[in-house]
Amino acid sequence: MPYKVTISTKAHKPMRATKQNWEPGTTNDHVQALDGFQCMEMTLTEVGWRLEMFAGTKPWDVYDTPYYKAWLYQGYNTLTYHDRLCDIDRTTEICPPGFKQGYMNIPALLESLEREGRIVVPFSKAYDIRQYNKHMDGCVLTVEKIDLPKECPNYQVMDESRKNGSGEYIPDFNALRATASCDEERAYIDSVEKRIIDGKFSGFHWNMVYITKMACGHYEIFQAPANEHYPLNEILKSAQDHAATSKCTHCICNWQRT
To answer: What Å distances lie between residue 191 and 72, 173, 175, 185, CA to CA?
Structure first.
């Protein structure tokens, strides 16, 4: 289930700053640079990591795992902004500025997200009351559950741990079989896996695969990039539209099936 994350700092009230008192200016530039940030998180686990980053903490129990590192080192997890008074560029993670020592009940927030479909987290939640600056009142991070098409294709979004030695993604075929709609689809998944095992196909370039039943009645697997620029719900809607009007590659090319 995908989730859309956005940050709005339009309510921020800039503080007075001078070259002699430059720190408020750095805070102003940092907060303003966060405005309009958005990304897609593909699982509730990733939403939890997003909230940990926002709160200035780390999920130390999984910090060294390939899954977390693949998520952490995505380019949109850092922000570079120009500090105008100091005339330098600064880089930060996607979180409010300054020393954050607040208490954010992330499990409760995730439960609320699953129940309500949306959560709004004020910047103040990241701070102890002694460190919070009221100039950030009204600045929020919002997470919304994205509704998928009712008849969703069988799909899988992969992280960096699914890459082989050649840098190609290899799906978890057992998971794809478990979510297949029928024996015919499972047999098709078996044939794709066999092609990879036999060396006839090296893997997938993009981090998402999906399987659809085409207009000719045959199943086919496709790949796509699933990220903040290509939202999952849009990919799946396009997949449905394409499957309803297009034949599979074998039928189009009149290839013999093996």
So the answer is: 34, 11, 15, 10
